[in-house]
Amino acid sequence: MFVVNENDFEYRYKTYGPKYLMKGPRMNYALVAFQPGDDFQAHYHNVMEENFFILEGKIDIVVDGVVNTLTTGDFIHIEPGEEHYVNNAYDQPVKMVSTLAPYQEVDKVNVDNPEY
């Protein structure tokens, strides 16, 4: 067992991206922030499934070419192999929870960002 506080961690890109509260041994758990105009490179995972739960704001998550506009309270599950792209095309910050499982040290394959 362990307890952490999100204030003890930083976002990957200073003001946005994932802030991992736990990495492994069986899953990753992160808070993710996106400021207006921020995006995250399109990619897929070979083994890990990924989930996002929107805590606040509005975000586009494009999965295999389908645009999903999600808002506070929405949840999306992404299977291994499904290409996904996250983009904050709106004028408000977004905060969401991300989980990835089963944990893999390296399991991300970048692809071209979709145009939509």
Task: Write a structural description.
The protein has 116 residues and is mainly β. The protein has a domain at 27-54 and 67-101: Jelly Rolls (Sandwich). Helices cover 0% and strands 52% of the residues. The protein has strands at residues 17-23, 28-34, 39-45, 49-56, 58-63, 66-71, 75-78, 84-87, 94-101, 108-110. The strands form 2 sheets. Strands 1-2-9-4-7 form a 5-stranded antiparallel sheet, with no helix packed on it. The protein has a 5-stranded antiparallel sheet with strand order 6-5-8-3-10, with no helix packed on it. The model has no long low-confidence stretch (mean pLDDT 97).
Topology (elements, then pairings):
Elements: E1 17-23, E2 28-34, E3 39-45, E4 49-56, E5 58-63, E6 66-71, E7 75-78, E8 84-87, E9 94-101, E10 108-110
Antiparallel strand pairs: 1-2, 2-9, 3-8, 3-10, 4-7, 4-9, 5-6, 5-8
In short:
The protein has no helices and ten strands. The protein has 116 residues and is an all-beta fold. The chain is globular.
Per CATH, the class of the domain at 27-54 and 67-101 reads Mainly Beta
CATH superfamily of the domain at 27-54 and 67-101: Jelly Rolls
Strand content: over 45%
Q: Based on CA inertia axes, which overall geometry fits?
A: globular
Number of H/I helices: 0
InterPro entries: Cupin_2, Flavonoid_dioxygenase-like, RmlC-like_jellyroll, RmlC_Cupin_sf
Domain Cupin type-2: 31-98
Organism: Parafannyhessea umbonata
Pfam families: Cupin_2
